[in-house]
Amino acid sequence: MNMSSSHPYLIRAIHSWISDNGLTPYILVRAEHPEVHVPREYARGGKIILNISERAVQGLQLENDVIRFSARFGGKQWDVDVPIHAVIAIYAKENGKGMVLNHESEEDDAAPASRGVDAGELPKKAGRPHLELVK
Fold this sequence. Notes:
The protein has helices spanning about 5-20, 105, and strands at about 25-30, 45-50, 60, 65-75, 75-85, 85-90, 100. The chain is of the alpha+beta class and about 140 residues long. The chain has one domain (about 5-105): SspB-like (SH3 type barrels, Roll), CATH 2.30.30. The protein has a four-stranded antiparallel β-sheet with strand order 2-1-6-7.
């Protein structure tokens, strides 16, 4: 039996968990994906990190197929659209705890997998927290 993707449910759950703990939820997104609508000048290496905390965005919608919100980038208002399949990871800014989404496993109708981050997946920054598997 075909089931819908678990990724939007996982993203909503991890977002709630991070927010409920007083931390800042970030998503790592494939900025070059054709359906992603973000200010590409803020992307690095084809990826962009977006703060999706209630304090940082307006009108956050974590839907089954897309994440939508409005935010300011460099003083300019921007309507952001991120298809769920373009989200690489969701994690807390402060400690790096969260989840990397494995989109290939869902394409094969397998259970979604989460894993620790490969060092090459996140943009490099001094003192940047790393993602860990959440069990």
